[in-house]
Design goal:
This protein is α+β, with helices and mostly antiparallel strands and 231 residues long. It folds into 3 domains: 53 residues, Structural Genomics Hypothetical 15.5 Kd Protein In mrcA-pckA Intergenic Region, Chain A (Roll), CATH 3.10.290.10; 86 residues, Pseudouridine synthase I, catalytic domain, N-terminal subdomain (Alpha-Beta Plaits, 2-Layer Sandwich); 75 residues, 2-Layer Sandwich (Alpha-Beta Plaits), CATH 3.30.70.1560. Helix content is 22%, strand content 27%. It is built from 6 helices and 15 strands. The strands form 3 sheets. Strands 5, 6, 7, 8, 11, 12, 13, 14 and 15 form a 9-stranded mixed sheet that branches. β1 and β2 form a beta hairpin. α1 crosses α2. The structure holds uracil.
Length: 231
């Protein structure tokens, strides 16, 4: 792989900074200073030093994105901007989103290249909890809350598993579900005669959206977050 890509993937800097550091002579490969960003390096066999410290290639990477509205949860799309386009600075071509959020949904989306973790988090067998701040058209009645918490019929998909509701205000609830059916939250609210006006994912499993991230921004997951997700 290119030396600049190797460097930004390993020391978590932008592609531009990696190119600058390489040009300025901060990087050596097998004991020889290399100033060409396009130099071909093997992540398995070459020994790379950055500022005289050895760097090792990271096989798996994990990010949290605060997904903005209007961006699709796909790796490529003919017409729309994708969530992966938002991470193009990372210079990786193996990233994908863990599950999907609708185009108009905002909030937490985990992006990785770790297929096993993605499978673990999205498999229906693992019941990973996802919490959504949900803006609704009308206040929920106690009966609506009970029905949503117990399970409602979604055409073609059967009855939803038990969910949790925290009422924030008349027109905002936090809904926690452990499944990931197509348009699930919107269809659940429709099943009790209501309508979702806005939807933002706040958490997935143990990972909570970092509210310091503006919409469209992302950061690496911390070691603790990665470990808790794998638990
Ligand atoms: N449920 C929905 O209806 N949409 C989403 O994006 C996520 C959950």
């Amino acid at each position: 792989m290119r030396l600049d890509k190797f460097l930004c993937d390993t020391v978590n800097i932008s592609r531009k900074d990696a190119k600058d550091f390489i040009k300025k002579g901060f990087v050596s490969v097998n004991g020889i200073k290399v100033t060409d960003s396009g130099f071909n390096v093997s992540e398995h066999t070459d020994s790379v030093l950055f500022k005289d410290n050895p760097v090792h290639y990271e096989k798996f990477v994990y990010y949290m994105l605060n997904k903005p509205s209007g961006v699709v949860s796909a790796t490529t799309d003919a017409t729309d901007v994708t969530v992966i386009d938002l991470l193009k600075q990372e210079g990786r071509n193996d990233l994908f989103p863990v599950g999907r959020l609708d185009k108009d949904t905002t909030g937490l989306l985990i992006i990785t290249n770790d297929g096993d973790l993605s499978h673990h988090l999205t498999s229906p067998r693992h019941h990973v909890a996802k919490t959504y701040l949900t803006g609704i058209e009308h206040p929920l009645s106690p009966e609506d809350i009970k029905a949503l918490e117990t399970g409602v019929e979604l055409n073609g998909d059967g009855i939803t598993k038990p969910a949790q509701i925290k009422v924030i205000s008349d027109l905002f609830i936090e809904l926690t579900i452990t499944e990931g059916m197509y348009h699930q939250v919107k269809r659940m609210l429709a099943a009790v005669g209501n309508k979702v006006i806005s939807l933002k994912r706040l958490s997935m499993g143990s990972v909570i959206l970092d509210e310091s991230l503006p919409e469209g921004a992302y950061r690496r997951l911390t070691e603790a977050e990665i470990l808790s997700l794998k638990d």
